[in-house]
Amino acid sequence: MGTVAIVRCGSYSPAEVERAVRTCAELGDFRPRPGTKVLVKPNMLVPADPRSAITTHPEFVRAVIHLLKDCGAEVTVGDSPGFLGCRQVARLTGIADVCRRAGARLASFNDPAALRDAYGAVCTRFEVAREVLEADLVVSLPKLKTHGLMRLTCAVKNMLGCVPGLGKQRLHALFQDPERFGAMLVDLCRAVRPAMTFVDAVTAMEGNGPRNGRPRFVGLVLGSTDPYALDVVASDLVGINPASVPTVAAAHRAGLGPLSPAETPRVGVDPSEVRVADFRQAPLRRMERGPSPLRSLIRDYLIPRPEISAEKCRACLVCGRVCPAGAIGARGDRVRVDYSACIRCYCCDEVCPHGAIQLKVPLYRMFR
Ligand code: SF4
Ligand code: SF4
């Protein structure tokens, strides 16, 4: 089991982020050999201002590129966003500018290639971006955020962006149950095998993550060669019971990771000094469907569903393009959701560029 480094970082000033990232690399004994081809995988969910804490901060990406270049590595940066292409989102988040100045190549992440791992618990074959297979090492740079479906998005969940385009939505459709979706993410992480993960937890996202939550200063950078142990430590630091995170539970079932921070070697700052006790969690959302009448009732009345605001919606249909269930379309003069088809995956909520989608519990709405 890998050690998890916890390092303070008080701001996104270049000097401070570089110091924190390099300390994590030293504590994790991570130093790629000269000439190694490294793919750096930030979180580039949607085009967003770095201050919104939706995406990995460009200064964080810059610090990791500098570290890798100093080791003599050849660096490529890439991710598959929720919508738009990698290069467009990189330009709009400031990451493209950082790559150009720091001497890293920006990937297209358009071209899928098969990646197999015979030991996957629920999935043994993935279509990932070709650049993932061409790299000698993958270095993952997740943003620490709450996540409605997975409770937490951090090291393991960040690997979903290795799947280009609508492949991500196909996985949502195939693995609708959160436990199975978490197990699929662990299979994907095991197949990609990130060599090192640096977590941008300087400003994290609390509440309605991963897109519509609030930025929350945490002031930390975490690092580890072990993504499963890292997620245990990260969830504990923001007050989420690690065992309740589907990816942590699935990794534990697969014999890959611990369930509790007490089982995880940590170095750097004492976690008790930096734990954020009042970090707001994501509202509980589940997307199970099934023949059981009780399940159907729960789904129809208690599970939040996406509702589109007629005032805010600009009818761009970005949501319809990412919906794995084909549940969104223009009907009459409005964009509407077919709730009988909707699997409550919330991909639409993550990508709406106009903040027009809100997740609401149908039962509460009946009493308003
Ligand atoms: S809900 Fe958002 S993404 Fe969907 S059509 Fe309206 S503005 Fe576009
Ligand atoms: S409507 Fe939204 S929540 Fe429902 S299946 Fe489509 S993307 Fe998922």
Could you characterize what this model shows?
This protein starts with a strand and ends with a helix. A hairpin with a 7-residue loop joins strand 10 (196-206) and strand 11 (214-224). It is globular. The protein has 368 residues and is α/β, with parallel strands linked by helices. It folds into 2 domains: 4-274, Rossmann fold; 293-366, 2-Layer Sandwich (Alpha-Beta Plaits). Helix content is 32%, strand content 22%. It contains 14 helices and 16 strands. The longest helix has 15 residues, at 178-192. The strands form 4 sheets. Strands 1, 2, 3, 4, 7, 8, 9, 10, 11 and 12 form a 10-stranded mixed beta sheet that branches. The structure holds iron/sulfur cluster (SF4) (2 copies). The site of one iron/sulfur cluster (SF4) has 14 residues, from helix 13.
Condensed summary:
With 368 residues, this protein is of the alpha/beta class.
Main attributes?
368 residues, alpha/beta, Rossmann fold, Alpha-Beta Plaits, 2 domains, ten-stranded mixed β-sheet, two-stranded antiparallel sheet, 16 strands, globular, binds iron/sulfur cluster
